[in-house]
Design goal:
The complex is a heterotrimer of chains A (about 675), B (about 300) and C (about 300).
Chain A (H helix, E strand, L loop, with lengths): L4 E12 L2 E13 L4 E5 L6 H9 L6 E4 L2 E4 L2 E2 L5 H7 L4 E4 L13 H13 L3 H14 L5 H4 L9 H12 L6 E5 L7 H18 L2 E6 L2 H7 L2 E6 L2 E7 H6 L4 H8 L41 H5 L5 E2 L5 E2 L5 H13 L20 E12 L8 E13 L4 E5 L6 H8 L7 E6 L2 E2 L5 H7 E4 L13 H11 L5 H15 L15 H13 L5 E5 L7 H18 L2 E6 L2 H7 L2 E6 L2 E7 H6 L4 H8 L40 H5 L5 E3 L2 E3 L2 H10 L1
Parallel strand pairs in A: 3-9, 3-10, 7-8, 8-9, 16-21, 16-22, 19-20, 20-21
Antiparallel strand pairs in A: 1-2, 1-4, 1-5, 5-6, 10-11, 11-13, 12-13, 14-15, 14-17, 17-18, 22-23, 23-25, 24-25
Helix pairs in contact in A: 3-4, 3-6, 4-6, 6-7, 15-16, 15-17, 16-17, 17-18
Chain B lengths: L1 H29 L2 H6 L5 H10 L6 H13 L13 H36 L4 H15 L2 H15 L12 H30 L2 H8 L4 H39 L4 H10 L3 H29 L7
Helix pairs in contact in B: 1-12, 5-6, 5-8, 5-10, 5-12, 6-8, 7-8, 7-10, 8-10, 9-10, 10-11, 10-12, 11-12
Chain C lengths: L19 H10 L2 H18 L1 H4 L37 H37 L1 H16 L2 H12 L3 H11 L2 H15 L2 H8 L4 H37 L11 H9 L7 H28 L6
Helix pairs in contact in C: 1-12, 2-4, 2-12, 4-5, 4-7, 4-8, 4-10, 6-7, 8-10, 9-10, 10-11, 10-12, 11-12
The chains are: A alpha/beta (about 675), B mainly alpha (about 300), C mainly alpha (about 300).
Amino acid sequence: MPPLLEVEDLSVTLKLAEGDLTAVSNISLSIEKGETLGIVGESGSGKSISSLAVMDLLPKGTIRKAAKMRFGDTDLLSVTPSQMAALRGNKIAMIFQEPMTSLNPVYTIGRQMTELLMLHKGVSQADARNRAVELLEKVGITAARSRLSQYPHQLSGGLRQRVMIAMMLMCEPELIIADEPTTALDVTIQAQILTLLRNLQREMNMAMIIITHDLGVVARVSDKVAVMYAGQIVETGKVDQVFRTPLHPYTQGLLESIPIPGEISPGEELGSIPGLVPSLKTNFRGCRFANRCDRAFERCHTTPVGLSETVQGRQSRCLLTEEAAAQAYQAEKTKEADTSTDYGTAIDVSGAPVLSANNAECVFRIKPNMFAQPKLLRAVDGISLDLHRGEVVAVVGESGCGKSTLARMLLGLRRPSSGSVTLNGKDISGLSNVEKSRRVQSIFQDPYSSLNPRRTIGEIIRRPLQLHGSGTAAEQQETVEAIMERVGIPRRLYHNYPNQLSGGQRQRVAIARALVLKPEIVVCDEPTSALDVSVQAQILNLLLELRDQMRLTYLLITHDMAVVEHIATRVVVMYLGRVVEIADARTLFENPRHPYTKALLGSVLTPEPDADVPDIELGTSYPNPIDPPSGCTFHPRCPIATDLCKRSAPELRPIGATETACHNVAAEVIAAE
Amino acid sequence: MLKFILRKLGMGLLVAITVSLATFLMLNLAADPAAMVAGEDASPQAIEDIRVQYGFDRPLAVRYVEWIGNVFTGNFGESYYWKRPVFDLFLERAPVTLTLAFSALTITTVVGLLLGVLAALNPNGWLDRFALSLGTAAQAVPNFWLGLMMIILLGVMFPIFPVSGDATWKHFVLPSCVLGMSAVPQVLRLTRAGMIDVLGSDYIRTARAKGFGPGRILFQHAMRNALLPVVSVIAIQLGYKLGGSVVTESVFALNGLGRLAYESILGADIPTVQMLVFIFALIFIFLTVAGDVFNAWLDPRLRLE
Amino acid sequence: MTAASTSPQQMVGDIIDLTPRERMIKKAKSHRGLQFGGAVVLTMTLVALLAPVIAPYSPFEQDLAKRLISPVWAEGGSWDHILGTDQLGRDYLSRLIYGARVSMGVGFGAALLGCVIGVTIGLVAGYLGGRADRAASFLLTCQLALPSLLLAMALVFFVGASITTLIVVLGCLHWSYYMVVTRTMTRQIRELEYVSAARSIGSTDRQILFYEILPNLSNQIIVVFSLEMAVVIIHEAALSFLGVGVQPPTASWGLMIAEGKEAMYFKPYLVAIPGAALFLLVLAVNLLGDGIRDITAPEGRN
């Protein structure tokens, strides 16, 4: 049987003011009925553009060329626009990344769902509404009929993505294309949406293309995978083949740059791909990956490299022989994780803490309008936490849990509403800005907004020295150049501006600015989440190295459990402004107690091709912090909640080696004893 | 929804009172009102007589409270110049200006919206370039000069339209075009920008992925969102048209509120000027509230309490 | 693959873009509107500054024997008076040249005054937020509700018309656009991480406002400045046209149009010439503003 979708030699050229840019070069794809193909790549690899090309949804002024493009019996290269429109949403459906902006804000859910069915199938309004209710229920939305009259802004991101999925299934498409369907969602929701997509795909026997930067997602849901780099497919094959024995050095590098427990020990340096993704404006002669490849030889730089088939259905765009490539990778991998490593255990936690929060609370007064009664939002609800010298304390939780507010309080940027934050025993609110900033520094999430666009790199890094009046101008410049060298920014970039640098380089500048005053504590708020996978590993390695060199203490705010497991020595799990569990990293990962911690850990998608998408037994949505549930705030989502949990909030208490706030876990442990 | 409207109106009332107070202070402090009413050659004694006669000798605060108190009962005071209740003057002159303002607004809206949408459909196309050039030119052309040139061209060289007075609808054609042109650039640019923005949005991509054709995408999925910012601007522009009619009416010798304002300023007729500023402000406030309410009807997100 | 993170091969120094200034210059080179607008504004500024030097005659000198001479291209015109003369026999070109002083002077002065007022309010409101912001936005609504042209007429007339009065009154009535833009931008920038970063390296509020925020606003403020200057120039002309602005015998383009109005049916150039000059200046100022906006507009990431 011929494949459902067949694409050969597809190229897409964008017409830009500065000239043409070929975003996708000669890619070929095929997918059978009921099969899932994962397309994985970093930003700018052309993965999204190729799917838009299939849908004929490319922006105006884009040129699409292909030798062949066929869907079912239809030749997609020769269809009229109206024939193509009749396929879209009907036979081929697409789900987009941003559930917040992908639904029309001025129309109800019901209208947006039913209009699709009425357009393609010509059914009546009433039938369409029934079908919509049926599908909303299928995607796990309760009170489905009443949702039809709601507007998108009344739903959470996770719910909107479910609505989007339900909507796109209205016509029972044969192929569904999901472009980063879970990237904008919290980790626990991500697992739920992926499970849902996979189950629906099996149930309805659809073909699915899932486009993502996340190797974990591809590994768990797809049958086949295509790895894209700089507009080309560099490797393709069955998922377990590609993930077990990647052939292309880029695929290998990507897999190595993700910390996988058991394969790399905490604190150890990650594999990383040096350098940057080349600009697509480059006039490529040889292999596009050659300048970042440590096994490249001369011919790689001079001759174009084609995709060569090795085993049946397996292709790689590399001049290395299959054995040579595989061997090199195995050599890397057999270096077993050293489980006896003492990472983090040598820290003295008996001494006085360098930074501590004592029952700190942060309450916002939310006033929807001038006349309304203000409502209280407890962003941080009574948290006590000690940081000892040399520790890497990770604060984890989903968005809205108050972890960033906690960080701002610990930085002294926000005064606690009650309780206190002390730095080396002194109340931080009594310290001047200058004193505070000498000891505590921060690195922010988004390197695109954390550097002032009107200042040069040198000015940015030097600014703390100026503010603190340390040294003469010449000495300051010297210090700045030294720190630039240390974080890996060439000295000649001193007079350049942030817009001239890549994301990874910018994050290095931000790190340099934080470290130029030689602080004791650095608060890192999601330091790698805005970066591409291969660059993330570079930054994590740098942070680890600097910690050793400069005896730093880190407070790491993040939602990425893989990163936490890799570099944290102690972990604080937050939910709705409270700590639900706190333990040293190894204990927590080996033996999580709190049901929320278990869910968080369970939803981590490591790139293991054998593993399935984990089943997360959580109620769908994160509660609104203005109106938190009674008792234990986690009870509406908790699989083991009892009546007691609805009534009273559990205290954080030591249970074994961890401290946990859960009635049931406490009862269990007492019973066991 | 009712609460939403009431709250907006309450806020508007506060603005109106502040504006009237500011106007009152400015007009009375800009110069000695008694001297102005008395005229240039009046003797000091005559000025003092007028000061007592018109009550200018009393404290400003007392006079303002009296004025605003009267306003709430519908009495805007007596004109110094015409010696008649100023509100009667307003009622006499309003129809001409309202006709002018509404016909000008119709021209602005039709031309601005149409060109804006058409330009957005093909950014950088010939129509877009034409619309933007027209907008830039219309923004740079002084209203009164355009009026005079039209009089020379269409009134005198090719006498198609009458050039002064308000006797027939034909008299309103040229002034409406002139006044209407002045706001075309704003409406055009905003419509164009809003439309380009919306057409590039994620939910329009979704609509295309659902298989809708270009026509339905434009009219059903994009228009409503793109119109949101335009509505507020049109409301504001109507307010400005009333205030801005002073120049147009003077050029075309229309006997409306603008003309009244002009005459009362030259006649130092503070009660009339004060009333006109206050009423124009009220109309402006009412229009912005109406714009907000209309927007809330278009966009459910704005209905949130 | 496990290269040390500071090893030379990782010190990637690929510069992926031009500096902001280089990018601006590059864009300016191909922006015709900006070039045209800039050239005209520059020329008009020079003309205004050098008026006594370049004007062929005094703008006030009357010669009733030479009344209403047509411009050089029309019948009866001569090179003695390139643009002809007005009803009082004054040289029209000289009056036009001196008129540029009024337009440029009032336009620049009032736009600057409005800029100072609007930017100050906008910065404070946007940065502090909360009550200050609500107060500022109330003030803004009040300002918008005032019929500004009408009020300007009344105030200028009552106080007594002079260039200074015009500048003060028009400046005080044209700050709202600056305020809106400054407030919106300040609010956005305040939430950006580089402001948090500035605070965490020990900057005070003042240092943040002047070192981090204001430099990022300057381009937008210049754009608003030019657009507002255009509006103010038209308003000055309108006031002078209505007889409540610049007073005779001073030469102002608006006043010239008003004076020429009486004779416009048989000598249309009396109205056409000063109006065209006004149109050209306002167009150029607008094009300059739009151009600056285009060349300084931030681009998407990469």
